[in-house]
Amino acid sequence: MIETNDLSKQFLDFSAVDGVNLSVQSGQILALLGQNGAGKTTTVRMLTALLKPTRGSARVAGFDVTRNGHDVRASVGVLTEHHGLYMRMTATEYMDFFGKVYNLSSTLRKTRSNHLLEYFGLIEAANRRIGEYSKGMRQKLALARAMMHEPSVLLLDEPTSAMDPESARLVRDEIARLKSTQRTIMLCSHNLTEVELLADKIAIIYRGKILIQGSLDELKKNVLGAPEYIVKFAGGWDAGGLELPKGMELLSKTPTSLKVRVEAPETANPQLMKILSSASAPVVAFQEEVRTLEQVYLKVMAEIKGKEYVQ
Amino acid sequence: MFNKLRPVWLVAQRELRDQFRDWRVLAPMSILTLGFPFLMNEFAKQTVDFLNQYNANLILDRLVPFSIMIIGFFPITVALVVALESFVGEKERGTIEPLLTAPFDDWQLYFGKLLVGAITPLIASYISIALYLFMVTRQDLNMPAPTVMVQLFLLTTAHAILMVSAAIVISVQSTTVKAANLLASFIVIPVAVLMQGEAVMLFWGNETVLWFGIAGVLIISLLLIRVGIAHFEREYLLGREIDTFSFKWAFKKFWSDFIDGAVSVREWYGRVLGSSLKRMIPAVVLMVLVAFFSIWLSHKWVVTNVSEIIANASTENIELIEENLGELPDFASMSGHFSAPFLFLNNTRSMVVIFLAGMVSFSVLGVLFYMINVALIGGVYAMFELLGLSPLPIFAAGVLPHGIFELPALLFGSAMVLYIGAVLVTPQRGKSIGEVIIALIADWFKVFVGLIVPLLAVAALIEAYVTPVILQSVMGG
């Protein structure tokens, strides 16, 4: 698990990370979103005990990042912003080197290396120099390296960047599998669709401060308001005299549709359905208005920058 | 222990493998290793032939140890490139971060890099020397004595460690390979000067002096390693992105350290200078002991060696010395030649030289200069004794009046240099090496301005105007 308390990092007069509080339990994925230079990499570097916090504390895999840096580093797998691949090595040599770094036995190194290279489709190129690899292949190899010692905590910076859709899907599947094996995962990504698919919790960081955090539903509710639903009718149906259940707000009304905002959909929506049914409304669709993480993110960023949110 | 050293070898092994796949390392190393001994051998022969035309009689044998030193040094220059690249190159290529996230201790990473920087060039160097020695045997030349061979072997190894450890310090402090290469002149120039000195020692053929030279190089190498470890922090490698030096920041930092919040000269003397002096108490104590040791050593050396020279000297020479001693200078006119400003500037310059020498050698050269200065007292004292003169009245009249001020100035200035060296080789967590150096310079300036300059000024006045008068009265004109 990852726990941070008032985690801060100051570089001379520049505050890179300022009072970050995060909590990620085993089997959870936290996505850290933010602009370039927002403080994501510095946060990850503090969580891997590469940088010392100037204020606050953090525990990763049960170890304090300031006092037990060695143990922290042994427990985490990191995919860094730069792949950090040695271009004159082959993939097999590279995996073997990092296997040795994490003190794995010769048999284990071979088994895990083969398994990961096979999984990421690199086994055929395993004996080629990494310098000859494509960008996507390098990214996959870097990810395989981060997983080599089966760490209990994974810190992944842009894990699918530069990958083709098929490879990106592979990586997402692997991250989901790792989550199911009770690993704690922190993901830094600009791919919001990917984050929506994977993350249990999302935190948005701006100029070193966490602006907002929570589950996707919580963020949507807090940023965009209560969920919105659209009811579509066949032909033209007059919903003029329709009395909406308590906690439901009418947003728009046309002869073919009705748009409402619902505070508590689990109680209000069945009631609306009942009302529409008793009014013999020709309902053809009843669906939640799609609201994406991108909308949440853009609105949060627009608000913090004092700009108008443009839909 | 083996488990602790395993990561060191792991880091080194990976890079060694990389090195042997890089023609840019292999090609110059092979050419220097295999080609240079032939070139040097030919050059030596040509030099001897050329000099013999002018009856200079340079014997080829005398060139052999020098040639070995040069031949051994050339492959080591590659160590500089490899070591300069070690951290900053990895940083530039983005490969440093995965390595830093590995469960290694800082010292394991450091020694891994040190090993990889030194091992290949050293092996190349030994091969090169062996090749040259083979050529020596084929030319009916005399092989250097075993002691000299050991000295050359140690010197070559010390050069490699010196260059690699210095290059790693630079590599850690730089953010680009280009910047590291520019900073490499701080290694190349002192090493070039050092080798000139070593060459002189080799031609001189005084083994004892060469041993001191080797010891000096080894001590500086070890201190550089200590500095490297003390200032090697993962954070430092990742926390800096640009190499901009801000004069404004540096001066601000220096001034704030120098003033240290004092609002009056009285407070500055009492609190600020006081705390600086307090910090250097152990260094002062140590330098007092060093002074006693130097005086004792020089006294003993003069008594042993000079008395032997005097015993073996001809009657004419003894008479000449006595005649010269009889012609004592006109003390009354000395005040004109050795004016107070001259003496003050001369002594101040010496203190600055001790400081600068100490800064570039982690106090080793600074302390050496201090020892030479202090040793003069013991040596001159012994000389007077040997010549049958009573040294005490001469010292009491000629040295003591201004020495009361001058010697403490020398002591505090040199102790400060020792303190600076000690701080440089000690880990200063949370501070960059730049901040540490600025703080140390500020500390030295405090002692220099607040204590040394006033003491030297008083000493110069006494030496220029009071000492000659006292000496004149004691020596009887």
Descriptive overview:
The complex is a heterodimer of chains A (311) and B (477). Chain A is an alpha/beta fold and 311 residues long. Chain A folds into 2 domains: 2-214, P-loop containing nucleotide triphosphate hydrolases (Rossmann fold, 3-Layer(aba) Sandwich); 228-288. Chain A is 36% helix and 27% strand. In chain A, the strands form 3 sheets. Chain A has a 6-stranded mixed sheet, with helices on both faces. A 4-stranded antiparallel sheet of chain A has the order 2-1-4-5, covered by helices on one side. Chain A is elongated. The model of chain A has no long low-confidence stretch (mean pLDDT 89). Chain B contains 20 helices and no strands. Chain B has 477 residues and is an all-alpha fold. Chain B folds into 2 domains: 2-239, no CATH class; 247-475, no CATH class. Chain A binds chain B through residues 11, 45, 48, 50-52, 70-71, 73-74, 76, 78, 80-86, 88-89, 93, 97-98, 100-102, 142, 145, and chain B through 7, 10, 14, 17-18, 21-22, 93-105, 234-235, 238-239, 430.
